[in-house]
Specification:
The protein is mainly α. The protein has ten helices and no strands. Helix 8 runs antiparallel to helix 9. The protein is globular.
């Protein structure tokens, strides 16, 4: 008797993804505890809107695979339509918060804030791109599930970075990006390996790996360029 591998039975990128998404939620709450959850009264309304949108999206990532597993496809489609509001709201609120942050930064902090601005903009962009791929392939269940699971990976860098900033301050700032992206690469490498015998959808995780490598390279190269610095000055003045 042949035993079906665990990942094939539960699809850790699909119907079995909820434990990993919950773990990511825990990391996010831990990372954002000091700057947000532990100081809710001092946070502005826009920050609340961004947080609610993020929590709504994480709830969708948990609920949607469960609905498919329970054969509740009608509810899966209804909730999926809400992502047309939730995901753009995450991106828009992130961009506005980034603009407010850099606009209020003292002159001495501008170089760091210009880098943080790029991190925020690039993070919002890759979230929209990966979500867009999931929407584009919504009629192909194999690709759709993998790309939507991939949107969770976009939360790793901002969450882990804040864990290190607020809880492990001994980690030098340049290592934040290397550590968080190493985690992303490790996860994608594992998913590609586990998915190697899949009949359909295997290219999704390879595409995601390419997107994250391109994002990582841009983070290392773009923020220090004169073109980006001029853009950041313009964006701060809006």
């Amino acid at each position: 008797m042949t035993t079906t591998p665990y990942f094939q039975r539960t699809r850790i990128w699909g119907t079995g993804a909820w434990p990993w998404v919950l773990l990511l939620l825990g990391v996010a709450v831990f990372g954002f505890w000091k700057p947000y959850f532990g100081a809710l009264g001092a946070a502005q309304k826009l920050a609340h809107l961004h947080a609610v949108s993020m929590l709504a999206w994480i709830a969708m990532l948990i609920a949607q695979p469960m609905l498919i597993r329970g054969r509740q496809r009608a509810w899966h489609r209804r909730i999926g339509k809400a992502s047309y509001l939730v995901v753009p709201m995450i991106a828009v609120t992130a961009l506005v918060l980034a603009q407010q942050r850099i606009a209020s930064a003292p002159v001495a902090a501008l170089p760091m804030q210009q880098t943080i601005l790029y991190l925020g903009m690039s993070g919002a962009t890759i979230l929209m791109v990966v979500w867009g791929l999931g929407i584009r392939h919504r009629r192909d269940a194999a690709l759709h599930a993998r790309y939507m699971a991939g949107t969770a990976l976009t939360l790793i860098d901002p969450s882990l970075a804040r864990v290190m900033i607020f809880w492990v301050p001994s980690v030098p700032p340049p290592f934040y990006v290397w550590i968080s992206f190493s985690v992303i690469y490790a996860i994608l490498g594992l998913l590609i390996w586990l998915d190697r015998h899949a009949a359909r959808g295997r290219r999704a995780f390879v595409v995601l790996l390419g997107l994250f490598v391109a994002l990582h390279a841009s983070i290392l190269l773009v923020p220090g360029t004169p073109t980006w610095q001029r853009f950041a000055q313009w964006y701060a003045a809006l």
